[in-house]
Amino acid sequence: GDLRLECPHHLTSPFFGSSGSGAFGSNDFAFDEDLDDDNRQSIAARYEKTRDSVIFLVDSSEKMMKTGAEDKSSFDIVLELVKNVVQNKLIQGGSNEIGVCFYNTEKAKNSNGFAGIYNAIELDEPDAKMVKELERLSDQKIFRDEIGTGASECEFHRALWTCSAVFSRRKNAKISFQQIMLFTGNDRPNFTMGGAKYAELKTKATQKARDLDDLDINLVLNPINVDGTQFKISHFFADLLVVEDEDGIAKFDEQVALNFEDLKGKCYKRMFKKRALASCPMTIGDDIKIGLKLYSTIRAATKRSPVQLDSRVNQKLTCVTKWVCGETGAVLEDYQINHFYPYGREKVKFTKAEMTDIKDFGPPGIKLMGFKPRSYLKWEQNCKSPLFLRPDEGQVKGSTTAFWALLEEMINLRKIAIARVIYRKASVPRFAALLPVKENEKDPWDDKTGMYMIFLPFSDDTRSLDFPPQPVADDEKIPGLIESTRKLITALVGDVNPESYQNPSLQKHYRALEAMALEREEPEAVEDELVPSDGFQDIEAEIKAIEDIVNEIEEPEPRKRKKAAGRGGRSGGAKKAKVAVVINDADYRTLAENNGLKSLKVAQLKDFLRAKDLALSGKKADLIERIQKYFSDQDAS
To answer: Where are the alpha helices (DSSP H) in 220-259?
Structure first.
């Protein structure tokens, strides 16, 4: 009865329409299979933007140069963050671009000839030279000598204009996610120029911000004030960023950074765009389709694969595979190669096209099979990292409305959906459970509202194991052990989040690469966050209490096995001589005088007693007392 699925072909929600009506746009949506020559193409991997192009626009006025509580200025913190971003982009690789532009400067350097705007680092792929330049400009003395802080403000809309001009000169603008990361502590740029002039410049800045939006350039504000001064977005930037409602303005006012870690967390969250792992439709019935985007929830951090180079010319090598006939040595073409599988003594041959057809289970996609109660989904069935599903309106029109209706109904009925997933062409179909989640009731379309796609195990993956009964601690046999262990576990259990610890092996690897790229003698030291901190010293008492209890336990004598005669012809053989244990009386005497016999194991204590023909019964404390009495009797005689 558990295997029956509730058929979804006749959904009554008005959002779905009737079967075959094409309510979600064209029904002949298909994946581009021409991209799948090697059968490795993932589900409709469609990326609107494939790279990041970021310009850091940094306010260089005297206000930004003032130091705060940690003896660092806002300017110092911003440049430290920019350097951190460049280093991370270097590690990640790819074809991302980064540029740095300062405004409110004494000297000028830009293509438009605007005063007070200095384009310090051209928009380009990050490299070791960029890191060195940022480290050099982080010295305020060097910055003041070469660029300087302006005696008066530049017109703010011209700073945005300069960044827009930089983006317009790039050939890859259409495939880049373009951002201007603005860092400032001044919530009223150009206010000192007077009322009428200020209103005029504010209008120009607002219009320039709209032009940036038309050009698909995202303006991101990162306010920072190390002195704790309030930053009111309503004074100037609310119109530029299109923040209209009072709740949004109040929320943004609370996000002013005060230090490096604060700015880093806020900036990274705003800068790094969530990118879909893939896009595909979810079909319901024969014709209904909902466009979906798939996001990876977690991914293991690994070292990038090394690139093999020709040692003579330092050029990247390309791997080419050729099949050669074993008899003639001739190079074979694809049409000359067949595959076979042994079936008994027969070789069943297949062509490459036939092999492709055999492995083909249909086009990649998600097909909804039915629904089950939410209670049927067990935690242990999560055998693979789940994916997160969100609607894709650009793929199929009406997907957002349909997805929302389906999610709401599944939550209300406490149901999960069972779907058949073909992730790649020629890959094995998998069953997956679609678990609906709704994070924020007030904002149903926040980042955490959607469906988790949890891959279910095959029947071969599920097995029933019989575990032998485990011993249970007995407080009567071992008094105090349960209570002492409970105290130890209570002391060890703390607010530990594994996601907050970096992999020390990866960090050392990246630091070594960075040192070589920057031509440094030694890489920076890496703090191993997995090493226990000094806080573990607080539980030494609990550990000592358990050790004392365990040491008191009398170890049972090993059972002597009876050898059966006539096995393997060994019954008449000579017995193996026992190895005599050498006992040093002086060592035991020293331990007895210094109360150090507790550090020995029970077996070691019994070795001494056995050598002296003394009794071996009793707990560890009895054995220690017997040895001490032995030495005291010797001294008395």
So the answer is: 237-241, 246-253
Amino acid in the structure at residue 3: L
For residues 373 and 187, give the distance between their C-alpha atoms in angstroms, rounded to a whole number.
53
DSSP secondary structure, 260-274, as one string: HHHHHHHHHHHHS--
Please say whether the beta carbons of 95 and 122 come within 8 A. no
Query: How would you write 416-485 as a 3-class SS string?
Result: EEEEEEECECCCCCEEEEEEEECCCCCCCCCCCCEEEEEECCCHHHCCCCCCCCCCCCCCCCCCCHHHHH
Structure tokens at 100: 């740095």
pLDDT number for residue 569: 47
pLDDT recorded at residue 58: 92
Alpha carbon 352 to chain centroid distance?
A: 39
Bridge partners for 338 per DSSP: none
Paired residues of 53 in beta bridges: 97, 178
What phi and psi values does residue 491 have, to the nearest 5 degrees?
Answer: -70, -30
Rounded CA gap, 212 and 19, in Å?
43
Write out the two tokens for 428. Answer: 């094995």
pLDDT given at position 56: 92
pLDDT less than 70: residues of the chain: 1-50, 69, 173-174, 242-259, 269-274, 426, 440-447, 477, 494-495, 532-538, 550-582
DSSP symbols for 498-562: GGGS--HHHHHHHHHHHHHHTT-SSPPP---TTS--GGGGGGHHHHHHHHHHHHTSPPPPPPPPP
The Cα–Cα gap between 197 and 1 comes to 77
Output the pLDDT for position 290.
Answer: 92
Three-class SS string for 177-203? EEEEEEEECCCCCCHHHCHHHHHHHHH
CA distances from 21 to 17, 26, 287 (A): 7, 10, 8
Using CA atoms, how far apart are residues 233 and 248, in angstroms rounded to an integer? 10
Q: Which of 48, 16, 39, 46 is nearest to 363 (CA)?
A: 39
Q: Which two tokens stand for residue 390?
A: 């969100």
Give the per-residue pLDDT at 117. Answer: 93
Amino acid at position 384, single letter: K
Amino acid code (one letter) for 15: F
| Cα separation, 371 vs 406, whole angstroms | 11
In the block, tokens 């051209």 appear at 122
Which amino acid does the sequence have at 99? G
- Rounded to whole angstroms, how far apart are CA atoms 594 and 603? 20
Q: How many CA atoms lie within 13 A of 441 on its CB side?
A: 1
Query: Cα(169)–Cα(113) distance, rounded to whole angstroms?
Result: 16
Q: From CA 85, how far away is CA 100, in angstroms rounded?
A: 12
